[in-house]
Task: structure prediction
Amino acid sequence: MINEKMQKAINDQINAEFWSAYLYLAMSVDAESKSFKGLANWFYVQFLEEQDHARIFQNYMNSVGAKVVLQPLAEVPSEWRSPVEMFKDTLSHERKVTGMIVKLVELAIEEKDYATLSRLQWFIDEQVEEEDSALFHLTEFERAGRDFCVIHRLDEEMGGREYAKASALE
Ligand code: MG
Result:
């Protein structure tokens, strides 16, 4: 069993993961509307992955007999000026999420909740990957500048990304 404080914090995190999903869906829709098919695919996969993150927390809450409470989702932006702007927002958002996961770790340590601490380890590792990937794509699109051929090639490459279920759900 996990205490009330921890349950509330995890429910807030579930909401944050769904908000992330919503943000990436908005980016996917915006990219699609501007004929960036590959980029639209990449962010759609990101949208699916964020739902996995929420699911991992939901499963964990259920397995320790805690109550999952789904909260309303705040509005997300609907338009970005360029792929560079999308990845700037992605990177700063993922850095924010990393900070939230770190806060959960600190709370778990404070509350001597070692089961939650163990579950959070997966998210710590995941955030390293998320930040790395956002920074990589941001750098690539920044380097491409206004070179349409390079932008087109990057967009094509991103169309190859396939969704794979999170390891913590297997
Ligand atoms: Mg996430």
Q: What stands out?
A: Residues 17, 20, 50, 53, 97 surround magnesium ion (CB under 6 Å). The two ends are 23 Å apart (CA to CA). Helices lie at 4-33, 37-63, 83-110, 114-144, 148-158.
